[in-house]
Amino acid sequence: MTVTRNVAVIVGSLRKGSYNRLAAQALAKLAPPSLDLKIIEIGDLPLYNEDIDAKGALPVAWAAFRDSIKRTDAVLFVTPEYNRSVPGVLKNAIDVGSRPYGHSVWIRKPTAIMSVSPGAIGGFGANHHLRQSLVFLDMPIMQQPEAYIGNAATLFAENGSLANDSSRTFFKSFIDAFAALIERSLD
Fold first, then answer.
1. Contact call for residues 186 and 5 (beta carbons, < 8 A)
2. Strand stretches in the chain, DSSP E
């Protein structure tokens, strides 16, 4: 009997025509039946402020986000690169989920990172900068295959699907490897 694992998908781009959102949707379509991928929105999260946490009067968006992550088995990050790092909205979501100290919703959740960029190096800086935070948060991170997706403007067809077989093959190998990591980590 196959157990279905709930996977939170965090897209680091808020842009309407985001290549990262398209990549996340493509991964969801290619995922094995053992994974249920759902995008958890981060654009409406108020900026993290420890004073608010200390008072206990949490913004509704923080509480809902933390609860959504708690109810998942694993996390997939799909992000662009801004200034050789992750977008501020993504860093804020990580901070909201990791606080208050000692109550992180991220702990021990298997994770994978795909960075998608119109540039040639595919968000390498963002991918590795994000890995640093996730190691601190005690999240087992998929090491291979690495996913730095460059030249994103040529990656998708007009309907948003992956435009070529080699991309589909790579995305499929990536999501299958992530499924295997999840099972190893949670068994």
1. yes
2. 5-11, 35-39, 74-79, 111-116, 148-149
pTM for this prediction: 0.96
Cα angle: 39, vertex 43, 48; to 5 degrees: 115
User: Is residue 88 helix, strand or coil?
Assistant: helix
The answer to whether 7 and 142 have CB atoms below 8 angstroms apart is no
State the first-to-last Cα distance of the chain, in angstroms, to the nearest integer: 14
In the chain, the amino acid numbered 157 is: A
Q: Are strands 111-116 and 148-149 parallel, antiparallel or unpaired?
A: parallel
121 backbone dihedrals φ, ψ, rounded to 5°: -95, 5
CA 6, distance to chain mean position in Å, is: 13
Structure tokens of 24?
């996340």
Confidence check: pLDDT of 1 > 70: no
Report the DSSP beta bridge partners of residue 39: 9
Average pLDDT over residues 23-36: 97
